[in-house]
């Protein structure tokens, strides 16, 4: 396909322009617009293609483009003048990046063309991930406001905001997206296991961002060395204590799931909590509380076991969620959190964190809170037995 070749040969910052030119030549497209989800997951923001000014933001939770993003299915608008606008999800391995909107003559928008363009939107997603190593164009385009330096550091630490495999689906979100301090999340998977962690660094601003950066990278270093989960916590604890001498600590919830069996190991070292939704019932997973990382020298950590069943949903939340106070001083608490999670029961994992955080903002009564908040959702499907 000429459009795919154009994408693969384009300069990293010129992907939208190269794709637009190819679609005009190959499909007779009248306009092509790449829309990327902003950091706060509130809007789809147009990426300038260099030939015309960027358009207006598009709602992420409504309208045909928002439906394409949420449902991860093409959406079609038949317009006046014999034209059709297609909205195609741009995603990579379950990570929802945005939407590609293409205006075509109606006779060109055949089912075969829609299938081809949907596949091309997936190719665009892969090219965007590679291109972001070499250009800031797409990072700038995703912002409705300037990020604080601390938030810039935190977002650079993150993996994708969602991912999916046959065994599981993951979604996560940080708030406030443009000024987050010490909360963070991380995950990694190979053929045998999935590791997820949620962190909450003490302090504010740069101090919290630097502490979280040290902790996340220490945990990654230990994980990549192949050491067991509890020893990952021990090694990260030593790294933080060696630098801060007990003056700063990092709360962390570490979870490692064996993909073949659903058997999970969990290290609870601080304030993030884990909730389990099973058979429509939500409960807090009772874990042995252990010391946050870095409080004392050479702390020993112990992993507990949990067996996941197909259909289980795990929620990981920081104290910026479960401890936030409303206008009258009442804590958000487990009851309100349970209502938010229950109302999001039919949503895919990628959309659950943003839905819970919207409920949290309504409880708080103001857009910005006094603390960071992170929500991670893990839907467990299990692995089909080998034939």
From TrEMBL:
<dbReference type="InterPro" id="IPR001932">
    <property type="entry name" value="PPM-type_phosphatase-like_dom"/>
</dbReference>
<protein>
    <submittedName>
        <fullName>Serine/threonine-protein phosphatase</fullName>
    </submittedName>
</protein>
<feature type="domain" description="PPM-type phosphatase">
    <location>
        <begin position="165"/>
        <end position="380"/>
    </location>
</feature>
<feature type="region of interest" description="Disordered">
    <location>
        <begin position="51"/>
        <end position="84"/>
    </location>
</feature>
<dbReference type="InterPro" id="IPR052016">
    <property type="entry name" value="Bact_Sigma-Reg"/>
</dbReference>
<dbReference type="InterPro" id="IPR036457">
    <property type="entry name" value="PPM-type-like_dom_sf"/>
</dbReference>
<keyword id="KW-0378">Hydrolase</keyword>
<dbReference type="Pfam" id="PF07228">
    <property type="entry name" value="SpoIIE"/>
</dbReference>
